[in-house]
Amino acid sequence: MTKDKKFDKPWVMRTYAGHSSPKESNALYKKNLTKGQTGLSIAFDLPTQTGYDPDAVLARGEVGRVGVPIAHLGDMRTLLAGIPLAQMNTSMTINAPAMWLLALYAIAAEEQGVDQKLLAGTTQNDIIKEYLSRGTYIFPPTESMRLISDMISWSVANAPKWNPINICSYHLQEAGATPVQELSFALSTAISVLDAVRDSGQVKPEDFPDVVARMSFFVNAGMRFVEELCKMRAFTQLWDEITLNRYGVTDEKMRRFRYGVQVNSLGLTESQPENNVQRMVIEMLGVTLSKSARARAVQLPAWNEALGLPRPWDQQWSLRMQQVLAFETDLLEYEDIFDGSAVIEAKVNELMTDARAEIARIDDMGGVVAAIDAGYLKSQLVASHATHRRNIESGMRTVVGVNAFTESEASPLTASITDAIIHVDPIVEQEAITSLTAWRAARDEARATAATDALIAAAKTNANLMIQTLECARAGVTTGEWSDALRSVFGQFRAPTGLANVPVGGRAGALGAVRDCVKITEQELGQRLRLLIGKPGLDGHSNGAEQIAIASRDAGFEVIYQGIRLTPDEIAAAAAQEDVDCIGLSILSGAHADLVPQVLAGLAANNISNIPVILGGIIPAADEVKLIGAGVAAVFTPKDFDIPAIILGILNVIRSNHDLAPLTAKPVTPEHTIGVISE
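Structure (tokenized):
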């Protein structure tokens, strides 16, 4: 090593953080920055992400759970107090209301004396993947694309260092996407966004390369290390190809593939969670080792996120993993160490060829919005996720500590699970509502009303909505009011579930045996078994619910699944109307302690308390005990990976409710037929 050798700069190091309140999150950010974190990654709570104020009915139980609640400019001021925004690179994980949150951020920076042209960072703002995976959409696809286009056009002119969109393949992988689907669906989204901006006429043709240069991506890094590394090299080459050939961008710097990464959070396991540490390191290597496809920013989850909300110490551990790689190794001293590898090049070419074919298929459908409306993208993800789950169930894919090597010594890290995660105080929600009430009382109501009226009027025209959104922010309008103003013009969207186009009967073996148990039960009861699957609250992570719905259908149940974002009262009413035998609730946001009792109360109000309720999600053991005591029949958590066993468990809950003995399914093999043993 020589003193005059020039090393590469390390990537921006972030931790995805935010919870409880703007004040507590601000303290957390300041602490993380003192530890060497070089950028912010703001996690917003689900009401903020879906355009509701803390006092909205659907916000009950969700305020401050999975991120920080931001209801108005005052909250944003508190969140960023004492943080120098002129020097900060900030990522905001926000989509449907991205325009609104950027406006609040820009005004907060303006109040610090920071010129908007100095703002650096990213708003996620990829609404397409919300229809496919996370579910935090608000408006229909066409209107959502308009908001994105308006925001990009404004940013290029007024905040040229800001990346106004992160095209997110991250959540596609979590929803089951293969590398080819991740490449093709994300790039097709980027094409649709660029086409929308170009066709809006808001950007001069000579300035369009600036739009391309401000496009960024947010990707997932999974455990198949070689494949993930090749995926990133394929992303880089395909983006260069698309921006040159399709959009005529000749400047190589403007064609550069700019991306940040978070490693696969849903790949973290509840069983033997200490194994998550090496999973995160391996996944990080896949997006940092190859210089030509190295991430611009990396954020790692905490090792214990499958258990609950991580503590500051857990986030510090994740940051230190990045720092050790960047500053203790010689990684940044070399050119790309994979250039010239025949193995790597062959895999990259394979991925690119298959991705080009899928992009062409989506193009032929009319683009990504048309493919969403047709249900094609969602059904493809649900089907590929079902295949992934079956591979784990069968043992074709090994997950250490889950379906292999399950014997374990007691872990000192989880000796006291109560102390191993953060618990959000229930008082947070009431404090947020109190603060919101005070904010509304103190503002200039006439100015706030005039601002929302002007926004509604502008939404009915082709005007750029960022201008009126900034005035709404200054006038003290709230997150829910901004969203409701646009809902009144655009409407509210409900995305397809993707279940209808997934073929029945994808599993044999164990599920085939469960199917026989279902038939026997139906014969004993003299009726078809009906299962209602509901997602109360604002949690949009529907992957688990979708897989249970598919498997239950394959096992012979009649399944009623209406998708995400239902109130407890709506679920109770549906249960009464559909005359179901069991209700399955899915909650991953941590709001189970509030939402489940509300569902149980709704059943009582409809005089159907006799219908058993089961629950799936990230449920701490102490909460599981309380919920069982409150009347929940069974609880399933991420450690319960065996879906046929879960379906059999649901069936036996129904049998118990009818005073029938439980059944045990005997797996099907070529040597014997299905057998059922009554216990």
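The mean pLDDT is 88. DSSP finds 25 helices and 17 strands in the chain.
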